[in-house]
Amino acid sequence: MLDRAKAIALSTPLLGAFLAVLTWPLGGIAPAPGLDPSWVAGLYMAVDRGMDAGTEIVFTYGPLGFLGLPNLSEIWPGRIAFAWTALVHLAFCIALLWGSRRAFGSIAGCAITVFAAVNSFGDSILVAAAALGAAALMGEWSLRARMALAVGSGALSGMQLLGSLRAGPTLVAMGVVVLLGLPDRRRTLPAFGGAAVLTFMVFWLITGQPLGNLDEYAIHTGEVVSGYSASMVFIEPGTWWDVPGFIVGILTLAGLCLAAGWRLDSVRRTSLALMIAAVAFLMFKHAVVRTSPGSSGLFLASLLAIALVLVPYVRRSVAIVAVLVLVCLTYVGNKDIFGIRFDLQRHAEDFVAQTKIVALPGRAEDEQQRGREEMQAAYALTPREIALLRSGTVHMAPYEAGIAWAYDLDWDPLPVFQQYTAYTENLDRLNAAKLEGESAPELIFWENTTVFDPATINYPGAIDARWPAFESPDQMVEMLCRYRVVIWREEWAVLRRAPDRCGPERHLETVVTPNGGRLPIPATRADEALVVRVEGLEVSGIERLRSLLFRATNRHVLFRDTLWNVVGDTASDRLLLRVPRWADYPGKFALDSGSPTVGFERVPGFLTGVDEDTELTLRFSALPLDASAVWPPQRPAQKRRVQR
């Protein structure tokens, strides 16, 4: 009896659960201010308000996107998300322990699992799925178990296609390639597809989504995901070892995969390689599109986690060498924050505290209220501003949706509610159409995003050193035409909807210019704004391949003495260059470039197609403005917001 109890206590599931507590990844679940917390709050508000995915709300997450983002912006969705995250982290830790324990024994296996799990990443569900797929391809599953795998992985894929649109398609690809490698594929593939479709449709309807929205959900959300590596490129200087570390890590994982599949037939070997490549490639894209000193460490840690899926199927000597290499790379990539990540007591205390909050009556409501009060203290809106924002429907620009939640405003966002993700013509037009139509929000709350970081390289209302008037450019034109400033201060401005003051465009001239060349901005009348459409900045030709496999290069607008990033795929929309002072927004919210010259540039590089003969076409137009529709801004007493 004692031996049986000991065996149960030391079983992989129970040990995995213990390690999951010690490596709990969430530092907190209370609502908070900021860019990332605001899109999380937006997803929860969309669920609470029953917004239609693909038309009323568009992001990289679908109607189940909140599941992987535990937060108490809404109580019951937050509780469900917490439970789901705990289940996924448990499966992740069990998968790591299952592989490392079989290869290295219990003590070493637990140590390696903790090491990999504390450096874990957001898509850990893919590693757990890879462990199941590898076991099936290695012949460890019976026919009945393989059928259960097909149904289960299909259901999980269907759910994730409504959640994270990064993980969902990858799970589908993994499931298909694994089942294609198994002998009973004629039975398991239809079961996988049927479970995926059925689960997708069931949860689509449960979340209140109309059937007529399916195509727009697929198109618009797909554009946000697919446009990421073309438009969200931002590179911070890393260290000298980043590229060598990436190469060594990728080659190590590839060698381990080759060794694991060596004894398999060619079909299973190919399936195993494609499955591992699908997971690794997604993590690679996370690391290289937006680079920072921490991104390389996360990627290398992800390679280690994926490797632990394969180590049971290779010789121990090969497994030891591969894991040692990846452990060293992970350490080097994360050494600056190891003290925080290896505070296992803090991880366990966070798990216990958060479990009590979501499980005990009244605790979640108290935590939610605490988060609301802290956010209100950070935003520090005046009573006058709050009263104005509560007088109508409101959109938060460019991204701080958390303000709408903190003050319980009537949030009526533009579909692509985080403006920096409206980086295709279609998404830009979707936002512009909202401002043009009868359902437009009555107010726009526009934040000066530079106030809170004096050293920022951004410009008010933009990210990644982009020029704000070009962020979702058609949307910005419609905002200028239809919204006037009511009150403003350094931190933000409040705009109210008014009659359209813009007339039909008047074409001025078309100029073909060399890439990076500067030219004088055409003259306009005193009652006209100036817009330009640029052809040739979009990602096209061979650069599409580069963008798919790696990342696109940056695009720039060149003013008199400054250079700013722009999104190439929306450059052919209306880019505001000049706005008369009497019609422009006040202070740093002004959209006028203030420059007598302008130029645009595609940064050259490998597989970009850019050379010394590259040319761009600029089409300038004047946009008439009705001077009688001016509202003089009323500026309240200055009051600075508490720093975040």
How would you explain this protein's 3D organization?
- With 644 residues, this protein is α+β, with helices and mostly antiparallel strands.
- It has 23 helices and 14 strands.
- The strands form four sheets. It has a four-stranded mixed β-sheet. The chain has a four-stranded antiparallel β-sheet with strand order 7-14-9-12, with helices on one face. Strands 8-13-10-11 form a four-stranded antiparallel β-sheet, with no helix packed on it.
- A hairpin with a 4-residue loop joins strand 10 (555-558) and strand 11.
- 50% of the residues are buried.
Fold blueprint:
Layout: H1 2-9, H2 12-22, H3 35-49, H4 75-104, H5 106-118, H6 124-137, H7 143-160, H8 167-180, H9 185-206, H10 214-226, H11 228-231, E1 234-235, H12 242-261, H13 266-289, E2 290-291, H14 293-310, H15 316-334, H16 338-341, H17 344-359, H18 363-379, H19 383-389, E3 394-397, H20 402-406, H21 425-436, E4 443-447, H22 473-482, E5 483-488, E6 492-497, E7 506-514, E8 518-520, E9 528-535, H23 542-549, E10 555-558, E11 563-566, E12 575-578, E13 597-602, E14 615-624
Parallel strand pairs: 1-2, 3-4
Antiparallel strand pairs: 4-6, 5-6, 7-14, 8-13, 9-12, 9-14, 10-11, 10-13
Helix pairs in contact: 2-4, 2-5, 4-5, 4-6, 4-14, 6-8, 6-13, 6-14, 7-8, 7-9, 8-9, 8-13, 12-13, 12-14, 12-15, 13-14, 14-15, 21-22
